[in-house]
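agent> step 3/5: call structure_predict on target 'Deoxyribodipyrimidine photo-lyase' (Glaciimonas immobilis).
agent> reason: downstream docking stage needs a structural representation; sequence fetched in step 2, passing through unchanged.
tool.input:
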Amino acid sequence: NRSLVWFRRDLRVFDNAALHHALKNSRMVFCVFVFDTDILQPLLDAGLKADRRVEFIHASIVELDAELRLLGGNLIVRHASSVADIPALAAELGVDAVYANRDYEPQAVIRDSAVAATLAKNGCALHTYKDHVIFETDEVLSLAAKPFSVFTPYKNSWMKRLAAADGEFFLKPYPISSYASRLALAPTANANAIPSLADLGFEPTNLSELKIPTGISGANQLLDDFMLRIGDYRDTRNFPAVKGPSYLSVHLRFGTISIRTLARNAYQTMRQGVEGGGAAVWLSELVWRDFYFMILHYHPHVAQRAFKQDYDAIQWETGASAEAAFQAWCDGRTGYPLVDAAMLQINQTGYMHNRLRMVVASFLIKDLGIDWRWGEAYFAKHLNDFDLSANNGGWQWAASSGCDAQPYFRIFNPITQSEKFDSEGKFIRRYLPQLGKLSNKAIHAPWLIDTAILQAAGITLGGNYPRPLVQHDVARAQTLARYAVVKKVT
Ligand code: FAD
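tool.output (status=ok):
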């Protein structure tokens, strides 16, 4: 029997559930990746020809093909609508089954059921596997067998389940080496050369200039580096100027490393107990990832509306002034240095530090009074690691409308956040060199400084750096009034 492995968000050979099962169950295994026009065409139609994610995927595909070739197979790479193309390819290759790892995003679920239905008409099966998460949506439930909506009990239950199997069962990698000889080279007609970025209609971005390592090797390089400092994670993770986090999110997004590998590394380090508590905190972040996948699955309405439905009654700012304020936020021109530096980070690199994601989200929603969905959409467009569930979870957390979100009356002060988490202004200076000459104390709120000092530092407010768009205290009062509609339900 023959099968086809359809790679999507799992661009690796090592520890890949679908690849493992296909090899185990078949005599001959082909592999395919589709640059899906249903995803890419809308980007091109919107004029978004430079997209770091497309370039990241492209580079990772080249490496995946090379890895498969080392094992005796190769990667068929198509540029088509996968809904039609996967069944067509399956028929051409004469396979009995297509193997893939489950993708939980609503559009992907629709796509996969359409593919399964067409395949079934030709007598071909679509087998899907758990691979993107440690625990699937129905594997961690409350004692009453209900899904959790609060993180801490979910996490406790998650950890308990892992520990009961000593981590071994859920974290162990899927081997392929003993079956790798079943990988087959695609027949010549299907062994298309990998299309170039230009063939796909895209332009190069600054990805290589940013030195964001791509592919399986890039993920391993980042993990090796992070494992040297995982113990410090608890103490360093909140400071954007410090190399605290792992920077692995884009790799988790595209599956160039498995979640099991990451969780296993964290779990084993945690159990050795010799580090500074960082591994346990990092593992907890990986649990948040599973948690938000689960929330999106059970509450798909969150993709459009508030998790807590009463929050849909909030009246956000609208009209030309809201649009201008939103544009200033997007461009990093709010006059609040930490917010602006953070927005320049996402615009220039496609990454934003977690602390800053919380700060800028809070600023947009609770200082500018703008609908969280505007910010969510902006992040979706620009983040290399964009993931519907985590992004939506993060935005609804900041808007207080999410499950287990921060209470609506907790409003980040962008100045104190800056003083606390970038006390020497190192991060701000990196992105806003025009503020470089200000003292560590003054850099967080330039408009509060004496004009003479500003002049001496070469800064003109409203010139080379904007005046603050809003006064935080005033905005805070307006937000409390805006949220009054939901007071009864929190
Ligand atoms: P690390 O600190 O090294 O964390 C390791 C991994 O844990 C991350 O790669 C990620 O997979 C997971 N993780 C960490 N924090 C969270 C979290 N709060 N929720 C879910 N998973 C988490 N993360 C995304 O992967 N995609 C997004 O689109 C996304 N949008 C966000 C939007 C907002 C408003 C906020 C507040 C957070 C968002 N996050 C998102 C979560 C978090 O900011 C990023 O995962 C993290 O900054 C990625 O950097 P890292 O890999 O260096 O993180």
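agent> step 4/5: record observation. The pocket of flavin-adenine dinucleotide is lined by residues 237, 245-249, 252, 285-286, 288-289, 292, 354, 357-358, 361, 379, 383, 385-387, 390-391, 393-395, 398 (CB under 6 Å).
agent> proceeding.
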